[in-house]
Design goal:
The protein has 11 helices and 5 strands; from the N terminus they run ααααββαβαααααββα. Helix 1 crosses helix 3, helix 5 crosses helix 11 and helix 6 packs across helix 9. Helix content is 62%, strand content 10%. The protein starts with a helix and ends with a helix. The chain has a 5-stranded mixed sheet with strand order 1-3-2-4-5, sandwiched between helices. By secondary structure, it is α+β, with helices and mostly antiparallel strands. Strand 2, helix 5 and strand 3 form a beta-alpha-beta unit.
């Protein structure tokens, strides 16, 4: 629990108390003594508010767990609202999310369940999640895995992903091998390291560099960034499974459970 969050919770409680004060002041059945001639109504209100805030402050100091309870409830409400918003975005963008021709598809292209992964070639957690994808594809012949390139970790990532897009366009049959080599490799993924892998797999460097200038590459990245923004995805790896967004490298077992849940609906 951060200090800012707790302060926010406390401010909310004080605000509620202030509203209660306003409500109480507005009730017609409450008898309020007329202020002394020398005390204006503004001064009286300020005094009452200060008294209420003092009571609330003392209560919170003596019962700090209230702030945690309020923040927990607020977080739950915000998470529920975000989940509902993401579900709506997924429903309205089925083709862009699950069937974009610009994305690579691993596993069974006609699988009954699709997992979409937003990833960055320089993301350490994406590297750790690579064996999870391989394990799921090996154990589940009806799984379809869509890879959405989402370079958010600097210029090196962007350039490496541009090479990847060019390689996929020219040699789609070898893209999975390229992907495993680049994501699973040691060190930082760069344009140079990506081109070296592409050439090793048989690509012509001049053709790769020419394809890197294609407007289709820019279009693919723009679409993925727009989708990520709509889904409130800010980190990698992040998955879309069914009608929900699942952030983080959760492991093959957790993803398998979600796949099973979709099939058993």
């Amino acid at each position: 629990m951060t200090k800012v969050a707790l302060i926010g919770a406390a401010a909310g409680i004080v605000g509620v108390a202030a509203l209660a004060l306003g409500y109480q002041a507005g009730r017609s059945d409450v008898v309020v003594a007329s202020p002394a001639p020398e005390m204006s109504s503004t001064t009286a209100s300020a005094t009452d508010r200060a008294e209420i805030e003092g009571i609330v402050r003392n209560y919170l100091i003596n019962n700090p767990e209230v702030m945690i309870e309020v923040q927990t409830a607020l977080n739950a409400k915000q998470e529920a609202a975000q989940k509902e918003a993401s579900t709506e975005v997924i429903s309205e963008n089925q083709d862009k999310i699950f069937h974009s021709p610009m994305d690579a598809v691993f596993g069974n292209p006609k699988g009954d369940v699709t997992i979409v992964e937003f990833f960055d070639y320089n993301c350490g957690y994406c590297k750790k999640a690579l064996p999870d994808m391989d394990a799921l594809l090996k154990s589940d012949p009806n799984l379809r895995f869509v890879m959405k390139e989402f370079p958010i970790l600097g210029a090196d990532s962007t350039r490496a992903h541009i090479v990847a897009k060019a390689f996929k366009a020219l040699m789609p049959d070898k893209y999975l091998e390229f992907h495993r080599d680049l994501l699973g490799g040691e060190g930082r993924a760069t344009e140079a390291s990506a081109i070296a892998i592409a050439v090793k797999l048989g690509a012509n460097e001049a053709q790769i560099r020419e394809k890197m200038l294609s407007p289709e590459v820019t279009k693919a990245f723009n679409e993925n960034f727009e989708l990520a923004n709509s889904l409130s995805i800010t980190g990698t790896p992040s998955y879309v499974v069914g009608n929900e967004v699942v952030p983080g490298a959760l492991g093959a077992d957790v993803l398998a459970e979600k796949i099973s849940h979709i099939r058993n609906k």
